[in-house]
Specification:
This protein is α/β, with parallel strands linked by helices and about 650 residues long. It is about 50% helix and about 10% strand.
Length: about 650
């Protein structure tokens, strides 16, 4: 055996800590053998979703079905032996076991026979999806209440005849003791757990759709999820931190889409004081321009008044934030300071336009950004409500814990918006706090400052600066999460000329579609430390207009945009209802989804989402765990464990007795 190199004091301290977990040569060697076996398995399946925008029911269905992976496994096993209707029933049962099971039971003439057949099919399916996992990993996924029996059903090995007899005896015991429903439910949960190892959410959980809070509840229960923040997410993160400008921004969007249920039921945030002020101040004014998109028809006028009240408050605070943050380079977008109130016109990009709404009862033309006493009281009440919403705080802490501006994972680069670029194709630089940032350094800076807005001490300048920056990430021209010239909310409301409504995309978007798109994508990947044919950029944020023939595959095949219009509000623009991406040991598969009607219909009629699969990258050889990020970490653990074994064998450390 080679002579062991002398260990530093730090290395020796680490080995002593490691020895607490592996106190003997046998324990350390067994762990090395386990890891080496793991490294030889095919890599786990990764599931990518983006721009969910509160569409809870569609999200849950795609999550439960793993974008069609589970149905493919069912057909792979049972296409030749089980009728199509029963396969559809089985798929829906796995997606929604608690809801589907009573309906299926009610149909059966011989319930015990159905129980036995269903349990056997679930066992076979579970064996298939667990084949890429070590037995120890599968055991960790088993529910304690029935882990031993499930393990026996999955891993017993006998001659075929004896195995079937053994299975039948166990299953008959499960049925006889009235445990069939529980075991069916556990098997369905286990299949979904083992079918997908890692879930990636590439931004924008919030806004437009009705219940992002329910999506976050689901994500918090998921076994392994990461999130790359979208601009709709960061502004909610700022709102939870108590940023007045972020609170007004999320309220404006929520009111515009009439999603009051999210605020009132989801987060327990009362709009009572806002409603009362809006009625007193704007009750006699025409609020036609402020009517929300959809929602309860009985509350249209009420919501429209609150929408206007919140918007005026928001524009006042925008002017204040722009004034105290010259780094944001947003001068001229403080529109309440650009209005000629006597003439009823506003200055926009050097040109005066007539205002569509000239009623500003709370605005002082001498000091337009100053809040009235009543507005200040309403805002203080709203800040208190957002800060005291325990459920919102829990969700946002989860977003901070599991989220980042970007992620490099298994050779793929994940981010929501764009890598800001110049017209000539260079990484665009922006100066904050006296220092210039571009490319990866800009992303890292944005991540750090985003956390400052929530975690810096209460009342500190750092906390307010971080909260202002979260708002900038929502709408700033060089925000990598936004990726456009401006958020033209004021223009769309107040100026009739559609030329002022344009939100010009960052040059990044033309470069990834241009003649040098492949080179641009490769340069972005290299900027983030990724090289090789299997590396890709996974992007969201800008809906792909598939209805117009636009392809989600860009950057010479190295960049995939998976925003296909998940939100119902985008379906007419994209012609589809979203993309998802599956990364397996064999490559990348893009799933194109059609609209999802409802959970109720899916359960009642076994109606799955109609989806199309396209293989966009095939790995030259099947990718093993040892070729992944997890594999690199496990390989490093082997090195540490080998040093521990050598330390035991050389007498440097003593084995436990």
């Amino acid at each position: 055996m080679a002579t062991q190199q002398p260990l530093s004091d730090e290395q020796l301290r680490y080995l002593r800590l490691l020895a607490e977990k592996y106190p003997t040569v046998a324990a350390a060697s067994s762990e090395i053998i386990r890891i080496e076996a793991l490294l030889r398995l095919p890599k786990g399946t990764e599931h990518f979703m983006s721009d969910l925008h509160g569409e809870h029911e569609a999200f849950v269905h795609i999550l439960n079905s793993a974008s069609g992976v589970i149905r493919e496994k069912i057909d792979q096993l049972f296409a030749d032996t089980v009728p199509a209707r029963e396969r559809a029933d089985l798929a829906t049962l796995i997606y929604y076991p608690e809801q589907k099971l009573p309906e299926l039971k009610a149909r059966q003439e011989d319930l015990n026979q159905w129980y036995a057949a269903t349990l056997l099919r679930l066992v076979e399916l579970c064996r298939l999806v667990s084949s890429k996992h070590t037995r120890s990993h599968v055991r960790k996924c088993l529910p304690e209440s029935c882990a031993h029996i499930l393990d026996e059903l999955l891993h017993a090995h006998f001659e075929d005849h004896d195995k079937q007899l053994y299975y039948q005896e166990i299953i008959q015991s499960i049925i006889r003791y009235d445990r069939a429903d529980a075991y069916i439910t556990r098997f369905c949960q286990l299949i979904k757990r083992l079918a997908v190892d890692q879930l990636h959410i590439v931004g924008d959980l919030f806004d437009r759709g009705p219940r992002p809070d329910l999506i976050l509840d689901e994500l918090m229960e998921h076994h392994d999820v990461d999130i790359q923040w979208g601009n709709h997410d960061v502004v909610w993160m700022g709102a939870a931190a108590g940023s007045p400008i972020c609170i007004l921004t999320v309220l404006k969007t929520t009111l515009a889409y009439n999603n009051l249920d999210l605020l009132e039921t989801g987060y327990g945030i009362s709009l009572r004081t806002l409603d009362q002020m809006a009625e007193r101040v704007y009750g006699s004014f025409d609020v036609t321009l402020w009517k929300p998109h959809g929602g309860n028809a009985d509350r249209q006028e009420e919501v429209a008044r609150m929408h206007k009240a919140i918007s005026i408050l928001m524009f006042k605070l925008e002017a204040q934030v722009i004034a105290r943050n010259p780094d944001f380079q947003m001068q001229g977008r403080d529109y309440l300071n650009q209005i000629d109130y006597a003439a009823g016109t506003v200055l926009c990009k050097g040109k005066w336009y007539p205002l569509r709404d000239r009623d500003f009862p709370t605005v002082d033309p001498v000091d337009p950004s100053r809040l009235s006493a009543e507005e200040s009281a309403v805002l203080a009440d709203l800040v208190k409500s957002f800060r005291q919403s325990e459920r919102l705080q829990r969700h946002v802490r989860f977003l901070y814990a599991q989220g980042t501006v970007y992620l490099c994972f298994n050779g793929n680069l994940l981010y929501h918006g764009a890598v800001p670029m110049t017209e000539t194709g260079e990484f665009a630089a922006e100066t904050f706090e006296g220092q210039s940032y571009s490319g990866r350094a800009l992303f890292d800076y944005c991540d750090r400052r985003s956390r400052q807005g929530y975690f810096a001490p209460e009342g500190s300048p750092e906390r307010q600066a971080g909260q202002d920056f979260l708002w900038y990430l929502w709408c700033g021209s060089l925000s990598p999460i936004f990726g456009r010239s401006a958020m033209t909310t004021f223009e769309r409301l107040y100026i009739a000329d559609p030329a002022t409504h344009a939100e010009v995309k960052n040059p990044y978007y033309s470069h990834i579609n241009g003649p040098a798109a492949a080179e641009v994508a490769e340069r972005i990947l290299e900027e983030f430390g990724l090289t090789g044919p299997g590396c890709h950029i996974i992007n969201g944020h800008v809906p792909v207009r598939a209805i117009e023939g636009e392809s989600p595959i860009k950057g010479g095949g190295k960049l995939i945009v998976i925003d296909g219009g998940f939100c119902r509000a985008y379906h007419s623009k994209t012609g589809i209802a979203g993309y998802t991406l599956i990364s397996s040991s064999r490559g990348l598969t893009l799933r194109t989804h059609q609209p999802f009607e409802s959970t109720e219909k899916a359960i009642r009629d076994d109606e799955d989402i109609d989806s199309q699969s396209d293989h966009i990258y095939t790995a030259p050889q099947r990718v093993l765990v040892r070729q992944t990020d997890e594999g690199a970490e496990e390989a490093a653990r082997i090195t540490d464990l080998e040093r521990l074994v050598q330390a035991y064998q050389s007498g440097l450390l003593h084995e436990a007795t």
